[in-house]
Amino acid sequence: MKLVTLVIGAVGLAAVGYGGYSLLNQGPKPAPTAPQAGQPPAPGQARPGGPPGLPPAPVVVAVSRLATVPVTLSVIGNAQAYSAVAVKSQVDGQIREVHFRDGQNVKKGDLLFTLDPRPYEAALRQAEANLSKDKALLDKAVADLKRLETLVAKDFTSRANYDTAKANVASLEATIKADEALVEQARLKLEFAAITAPIDGRVGSILVNAGNLVRANDNSAASTLVLINQIRPIYVQFAVPESHLAEIRTRMAAGKITVKAQAPQEDRVAAEGTLTFINNTVDTTTGTIQLKATFPNEDDRFVPGQFLNVTVELAVLNDAVVVPAAAVQIGQRGHYVYVVKPDSTVELRLVRAGIASEREIVIQDGLKPGERVVTEGQLRLRPGARVAVRPTSGAPPGRATTPNGPPG
Length: 408
Hints:
This protein has 4 helices and 20 strands. It is an alpha+beta fold. It is elongated.
């Protein structure tokens, strides 16, 4: 055991001595030389602005610019008829003819239904005959009254006979007025036998066909002959949070507020209307208030009950700095963009993002107009990385976010 300990101790002393000799005799290492132009870097040497041996990262850039940006509020709404009428008969009768088709556009005064007019024609003739008879009786009563005036002046008849004749004339005059009213009523009922459209609009399904009997003053739903909806113009009804009410009222007092609407998944340009109604009550259960906008709807684009995507223009920002939406990233410290500097390296810039549309975002602070920002290729970037700008892919930029946010 003693022999083994002595051997190990000798070996340890020899190793320490050799290490000290090496440290004492090791001179300074030569400094690495920078690679010449066109030559690859030496092994272990990093390229400027990136990890060792990596080429510049390919990116797509866009230039920030000044623009006029509308401040909008997007909600869901639905179309509503400007006016709606349930057409009913004002007289009893049998439908003789229907003069329109299901879903047809009609004008005010267009003939819709014709009832059998014969009972009302007969009633009109009877009322006119009674009027003629009472007029003849009045003429005779007036003549008798004139004769009695002469006789009573000469005391050839009593004053009572004269007063009776005078009352008879007044009674017949009142009877004639009643007869004239009956004639007018009979004529009006005859006109009601021809049922016309009370408004411009589009009719729905025909609910009562020819041959059916209809009754007046029937409030049941079964008495409705057809429904007419006025859709030129048309209302679009929607609700907004009550927090926007003061701003909407201020803008409405200053001028008209533009409202845009289009059906979901519709490729057409949104139709434009004007805000025309603000309800006088806030819904306490939802904290919203009902609004209505009026649209011309000359092409019958919207129909009552249709759900629509509604955009309300609340304000307009002038000279706002905007960038494509794909340029703005979200990290742990907030929104940021990669700005391409003149030396083709990137700088991570924290920004304050404002309102956003589908393609662009307003930058309220942190970016100036004319600066180049990266819109594609952010995942390969770090602050100070060198980039190579490549042409855009042509596809509309979408919003991209890094999984873990910006470095650091």
